[in-house]
Amino acid sequence: MSLAAVDLPFIRILRLLRTLRPLRFISHNVNLKIVVIALLESLGGIFNVVIVVFLVWIMFAILGVSLLRGRMGYCDSFNPEVGKFGVPRNECFGKWRNYDTNFENVYQAMMTLFVVSSLEGWPEIMYEAIDSATEDQGPTRGNSPAFAIYYILFILIGSFFFVNLFVGVIFYEFNKARKNEEKKNSFFRTPEQEKWITICKMILKQKPKDVTPYAPKNRFSKFVRRVIEGKWFDPIIMICIVQLNIILMAMAFEGSSQKY
């Protein structure tokens, strides 16, 4: 009688372990093994980074509560013609609401910072803070532009910088796991094999020089060739294409005249 014919609950659970069979492929593939080892060994470093990120987010959340608490309210008059700008609370004929992303308490501030860190619609959230006024006063366009510094600093520090820290921890552990795996494999190699591997690595690192079949005889052609082969040609082209394009895109703004 085989286990396949037995229909017991705990036997069915044991059958689910067959889904782990593909994991045996990891032990036969060196590259996958290095990746898995790097991910497992980086858990400690990632946990430390998470603690630092949480502390920094708490600091930004407390700062956001002290700056924006009670300022993120608006009058929902259910009338699109009235709008929400310039309507104080005592003149609101609808319902006084807070934005979904507000800083009424530390928990709500953490949720707001999480949405901002995803970079999904963060300019709208920033403009809600910029348009905010005092408590019980409706939003006013461009009332507090200094709040943009708060959001930009959080994105640079709390989002970009710490995301790169996560990647750096995993990359460091990956390099360490790769070196350890190479050391383990080197125990089974002969000196001749090690020498052959070293020569192969040196050959792969060498870059062959591009030798043109003929040199131009014309002076102008020689000058153009010298300029193109110079080390400053590629950076200058990149600056002209990328930087000038960025400047032209930055010059455009909403509400510009047709003449501009």
Poorly predicted segments: none
* Widest β-sheet, arrangement of strands: 1-2
Tell how many strands the DSSP assignment holds: 2
Note the run of SSEs as H and E. Answer: HHHHEEHHHHHH
> Helical content, roughly?
55-70%
- Please describe the biggest sheet, giving its number of strands, its sense, and whether it closes into a barrel: 2 strands, antiparallel
Cα-atom radius of gyration: 31 Å
Shape: flat
The termini sit apart by 87 Å
Q: Hey, roughly how much beta strand do the residues contain?
A: under 5%
Mean pLDDT: 79
What structural class do you assign from the helix and strand content?
A: mainly alpha
Number of helices: 10
Quick summary of this structure?
The chain is mainly alpha-helical.
Please, could you describe this protein's structure?
- This protein has helices at residues 9-15, 24-28, 30-41, 43-68, 106-117, 122-130, 147-186, 191-205, 219-229, 233-251, and strands at 73-76, 95-98.
- The protein has 260 residues and is mainly α.
- The chain has a two-stranded antiparallel ribbon.
- The radius of gyration is 31 Å and the shape is flat.
